[in-house]
Design goal:
This protein is mostly beta strands and 213 residues long. 8% of the residues lie in helices and 41% in strands. The chain has one domain. The strands form five sheets. The chain has a five-stranded antiparallel beta sheet with strand order 5-6-11-12-14, with no helix packed on it. It has a three-stranded mixed beta sheet with strand order 10-7-13. A hairpin with a 2-residue loop joins strand 2 and strand 3. Helix 1 crosses helix 2. 17% of the residues are buried.
Length: 213
């Protein structure tokens, strides 16, 4: 993939304040360093049961195509922020707008420029620079939470027909507890290399009746 060309870790800029591409760069693996999960069940007040399922993933990188194109198209939030002057990035540089870019020139001397917002964000697509849309896959997620009630079948007079009955309210994906990079749910990424137009994470709430005879 394509990264920003750097000198001693600092991006090299052209005379116009744009980045210079450096092809065939490895940003890391799409595979996390490790994954895991915790599941536990708690019994409360004799008849109630709470089930908690948490999973997590640490490490790994992914490329976000929707961020890549969304930024190019001016659809992501960062393309509409204020710059360090308190002026919208999209306003003309002559009016105080633009993106304030810091880097070095070809000799390694520190330089900085204000670059027109559209020009700045378009450079990543025009030069196929991937680095600006590479994100970390680390997350912790409450995958499932359920509250169950053990129906007292004997007291209801149905014990000779039903041995056990548990009614539960179940929620799937109720809470993305932690994610290193905001704006995406890395636990829902389906492609092996990254994200290419991911829909928002889906939460669901349902009921379940489990009978034992």
């Amino acid at each position: 993939m394509v990264a920003l060309k750097k000198i001693n870790g600092v991006p090299e800029l052209t005379a116009g304040g744009l980045f210079i591409r450096e092809a065939d760069t490895k940003f890391g693996s799409a595979l996390p360093q490790y994954t895991g999960g915790v599941q536990n069940t708690f019994n409360l007040f004799k008849h109630f049961t709470i089930n908690v399922n948490i999973d997590y993933s640490y490490g790994g990188k992914f490329f976000s195509l929707s961020d890549f194109w969304g930024t190019f198209s001016g659809l992501t939030a960062r393309t509409a922020e204020l710059n360090d002057r308190g002026i919208p990035l999209r306003d003309p540089v002559a009016d105080g707008g633009g993106v304030h870019v810091f880097g070095v020139d070809a000799t390694g001397k520190a330089v900085d420029y204000y670059v027109d917002g559209q020009t700045y964000f378009h450079q990543f697509r025009t030069n196929s620079i991937s680095e600006n849309s590479i994100y970390d896959l680390t997350f912790v997620k409450l995958r499932e939470l359920s509250l169950g009630y053990k129906i007292p079948v004997e007291k209801l007079g149905i014990g000779k027909y039903v041995r056990t009955a548990i009614f539960s309210v179940v929620s799937r994906n109720p809470w993305l507890i932690y994610v290193k990079n905001k704006g995406f749910d890395p636990s829902e990424i389906s492609n092996v290399y990254g994200e290419d137009g991911q829909l928002p994470g889906t939460r669901s709430v349902g009921v379940n009746l489990k009978l034992g005879f």
